[in-house]
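ok here's the first one, seq then struct tokens
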Amino acid sequence: MVELDPIDAAIVRELQDDARLANNVLAARVGIAPSTCHGRVRSLFERGVIRGAHAEVDQAAIGRPLQAMISVRLRPHARGELSAFAQSMTTLPEVLNVYFLAGADDFLIHVATAGSEELREFVLDHLSGTRDVAMTETSLIFEHLRGRPAEQGSVRRPPRA
């Protein structure tokens, strides 16, 4: 875990809200000089706190209005292929995110398609129609609201025993 001082925490919060902020605007919002702000942002990248800046794309606007979360459980013989399976999913154009899970299911795959027929084909061609997949369960997404992450220091973890 990386410790963040109040300025770094403020920079992270601002960039989570809008990763496209110009450096001088970001600096003004957190109360530091632009040159200092640039150095701090670079340091946050180098320390792995910020891993990237991404565009949030409206999938419906690009012809993929149907989104779903697909729970996937692999067969016992495929347990050694977890990483390869996850990587193969990330290469498919329908896949937005792949989550590796603890619990009964192995993965949660977030997909966007043009409609229900394309979603059905995706599940059949890439999941339930393959020998390594034991089970899938598809849940349609009606709406997605982005939460705001907890502020640095506001979440207390108990000490490890």
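and now the second one, same deal
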Amino acid sequence: MDFSSDVITLDVKGHVATLWLDRPEARNALGSAFWRDLPRAATAVASDRSIRVLVIAAKGPHFTVGLDLKEFGGNFMAGGVDSSKATSNTEAYEALSRMQQAITSITDLEIPVIAAVHGYCIGGGVDLICACDVRLCSSDAIFSIRETKIAIVADLGTLQRLPRIVSAGHVAELALTGKDFDARRAASIGLVNSVSGQNAGDALAAAHELAEEIAGNSPAAVRGTKAVLAANDGRTVAEGLDFVARWNTTHLYSNDLREAMAAFIERRPPVFTDD
């Protein structure tokens, strides 16, 4: 895979890729290199058709403490000395749009994405995991939509995606207070599917086990299922049914389907090839 970064590492084993937040010395604070390289990593994953599932995890004691305030703090103020207010506002808007698109590059992947969270998952970390399809964590995980505590509005996707994951009341409470909440509450409100073990290794093992289970299914069917689930947004049930009907009549008659039927008749595990 043709990808390199100082803050993100990609590993591939079989049909599962792991995207590591790899800046442990800074508690994986999300600086400009991260926002530049995340969409590049997503493109590298998308270009490798052997990859069927992506796991997002982090090295070091924490998933991420969020936006790198040491780097970006000064940029929240007015633009440069020689910039007009209009110019600085436009530049800020364009920079924010690029950061939003970096998170969206994960949502846009055709394959399922699983987040394995441990330690702190703060601010931009919540934006990132909300862009994933499934979230798991260890019992030491601490989450926070921290932005109100630093006098800004969360603007990288949490306020748009989290209401599709948990109920509106929980979103409002957590976003308005900026409070920390633990793994138990994250599971009780449905932010994470489950709490696995006590540390990063436990969460990662659970994520990889789930990824391998998904990767054992027909890749075309998995991609199709993700696409149909995403297509339900903004559609009525009838419109969603028509979408899946059109999808299946276009994609259903695949070699993977023939293999699934043959394996059933022959009483053996199927071997899918994404055909």
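notes on #2: Strands lie at 8-13, 16-21, 53-58, 113-117, 120-122, 134-137, 142-144, 180-182, 194-195. The two ends are 22 Å apart (CA to CA).
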